[in-house]
Task: structure prediction
Amino acid sequence: MILEWIGDAILLLVVLPIVIYLLRGVLSAATSIVPSVGAISGAATQGSADLDAVPLLLTTQERVSQTIGVVADYGGSLDVILDDHQEA
Amino acid sequence: MPAAGVVMIVAVLLIVAAVVYFLVSTIVALRKITSGLDDAIAGVVQIIEKSAPVKEVVDDINANLDAGVDLLEGLLVKKAGLRDAIGLVDGLYPGAGAAGLRNVPESGQIKPPRIGGVYTRGTLTLARLGREAPIAAASPNGPALRNPAYGSGAAGTLYPLGRPAHSDSLPRSPVIGSDSPVQYDPEVEVGAPRKRLPATAGALSPESEGS
Result:
């Protein structure tokens, strides 16, 4: 009879607190991840929106190519017009 | 049933209730995490898709710009010489001469001549003389010394009725030589007032000259 009471006391005073402590730790860890995941999701969405201007790079690429072509034409003309440097 | 058995059953029920409560709460939190990760994965996939062609385009732009730099550097060195080219670069961008030209690694060792300073002094001199110096409008130390757009209009104000042509009756040029109507002896006239010699045949008298 005494052993049964001792077993009850162990259940109530030792096992139950330990179970609650461990499960509460797991729950707090899980809930702390939720806001971080929300922030990551928001950052990914904003990052995706920032990249909406990427297609403009195609325009930049075309303009750079045209500009370099014009510079090459001018350079060729200057090469013909101006005398080369002569070492003194 | 003994009281000890009842207490044990109650204790077990409490433990089971605590386990159920915390496990259900954990499941709810994990479901939120799963939903948030799904959104994040969708955003990351969009980032990957949108940024996929960036490297190719940027590499092409860089290749074009590299070709332009090679062209301009080569032309500058060919026309101005390596030393003056470094001077021009350093004059436009102070301190850039130390870096040298990209295609001429040893050019960084050249002491750049002060080409920028020489051109600045010359430009300011032209501006003070009133010549056309449009670059004076971009004087870094203050307002333009003259208005480059209407600079030529200032000279026009000297002739409000229009610039006159040459006179109708210009004085005649002196006749020189042994047969000239007016003769003078330099040995006699040096350092003294000019002596009027008697008029010779064919020479005009002062009265007739003035008429």
Observations:
- The CA atoms of residues 37 and 54 of chain A lie 26 Å apart.
- Helices of chain A lie at 2-50, 56-81.
- Chain A touches chain B through 49 residues (CB under 8 Å).
